[in-house]
Amino acid sequence: MGSGRVHPGADGRPEASRGVAMAGLATAGRIGQGAGAAVVIPAALSLVLALHSSSAERTRAMGVWGAVAGAGSLVGVFLGGTRTGMLGWQAVFVTPVPFGLIGAIIVWRSAPPAPGRPGRFDLPGAIAVTVAISALALGMVAAAEAGWDAPGTVAGLAAGLAALVAFVTVERRSAHPLVPLGVFRRGPVVLANVVVLLIGGTLTSLFFFLPQYQQEVLGMSPTAAGTAQLPIAVMIIMGSAAAPPLAKRIGPARALPVALVVLLAGFVWLALDRTAGGFSLTLLGAFVLIGAGLGLGAVTAMAVRDSAEGESGLLSGLVNAAQQLGGAVGLAALAGIAIGTAGAGEDIAFTTALLGQAALILIALGLSLVPTVKTRPDPASAGTR
Questions:
Q1: What band does 77 get if pLDDT is binned at 50, 70 and 90?
Q2: Confidence check: pLDDT of 301 > 50
């Protein structure tokens, strides 16, 4: 607003140049954040699996992993809300820096060296799958803004599907594929990744819609909204602690529907809540169920607990890719639904979006009840990645 008074009488070119440079720097920073997360998350999960060989140990380790990952997400939201309230929106870009530095130091000092030689990188496959995911996400975003029949929507979805076909073709012909297609013949792996995709769409949408709902409909400040979400983090930790004993008693395949039922109840409760004027016990109840459901989820352990030696990196990468794809596509689709109902009022739009998230969980619940046949890992699909 005051940029025109920085240099009175100037033609504005220096300011414009600096502004363009800063915009490019911000874009590059966001790309770097995404690339770093794409490497760190599956690498960390692969490290957890490499340090624990038996299924029982991996189930317990995945409980700790789920607690840390889920609680970390909510702590990030809390810190983002409090720092935004105190220092402004720019503070959200500073919040991850100390955590990244601390994590890098811990891994550097304590992680064991990787055995064996690194595998070859499948560049054509990586390019094809990146284009496919990006184009599909852009197509969904265009659909939310302009409709399903808009040229941008059709072009994005068509390009994404074409790139996906190209990816499958490349992987079939590659001597060192990025994703050996034989892994998709294993029922538990396919089921787990599909459910992770659906949960990813739900979770990403929750973090997008919930702060807006709290501030715009309930009238909460950014600090209060972030603080109010802490019960979700607490229940994720408690649910993750209860997940290994539950999975050991009834099996991960049976524990998953239990977690999804609890999660579904939380989203339906939150969607139908009509409390006004800030935080309430009914809102707390919904948060408790959502956090417990997320913590109890043993779906990631289902996908990776029986991985062969050298295969943990592949399967953990698939889980992360499924979660990110589900988050991008699910958020775009649910945002489009919310925009379509915005004319009826903000509360109706948010309720519709939350019911859409509940629908994704319901689909995941139905899939989790489908029996799968456990197959032995394909030796051709194993390898250091």
A1: low
A2: yes
pLDDT at 155: 92
51 and 80 assigned to the same domain: yes
Give backbone dihedrals phi and psi of 310, rounded to 5 degrees, phi first: 85, 0
Q: Is 384 helix (H, G, I), strand (E, B) or coil?
A: coil
Question: How far is residue 292's CA from residue 267's CA, in Å, rounded to a whole number?
Answer: 12
Distance CA 13, CA 11 (A): 6
CB proximity list for 56: less than 8 A, separation 6 or greater? 248
Asked if the structure places residue 14 within a domain, the reply is no
Does residue 146 sit in the same domain as residue 47? Answer: no
Per the domain annotation, does 17 fall within a domain? no
CA distance 228 to 234: 11
Tokens of 23: 């915009």
CB atoms within 10 A of CB 319: 24
Look at residue 154 and tell me whether its pLDDT is greater than 70: yes
Has residue 195 been placed in a domain?
Answer: yes
Distance separating alpha carbons of residues 156 and 151, to the nearest angstrom: 8
* In-domain check, residue 8: no
CB–CB of 352/338 below 8 Å?
A: yes
Segment 226-249, tens digit of pLDDT: 778 788 878 877 877 777 777 778
The residue-averaged pLDDT of 139-157 equals 82
Average pLDDT over residues 360-376: 77
Confidence of residue 362 (pLDDT cuts 50, 70, 90): very high
pLDDT at 375 over 50: no
Same structural domain for residues 260 and 351? yes
Task: Give how many domains the chain has, as a whole number.
Answer: 2
- The answer to whether residues 287 and 273 touch, using CB atoms and an 8 Å cutoff, is no
- 59 & 173 share domain: no
Q: Which helix (H) or strand (E) holds 206?
A: helix 187-212
Structural domain range at position 146: 122-177
213 shares its domain with 299: yes
- Asked whether residue 201 falls in the same domain as residue 166, the answer is no
Q: Are 302 and 191 in contact (CB under 8 A)?
A: yes
Is there a single domain that holds both residue 334 and residue 364? yes
pLDDT of residue 166: 93
CA distance 324 to 318: 10
Instruction: Look up the CATH number of the domain holding residue 274.
Output: 1.20.1250.20
Reported confidence tier of residue 146, pLDDT bands at 50, 70, 90? confident
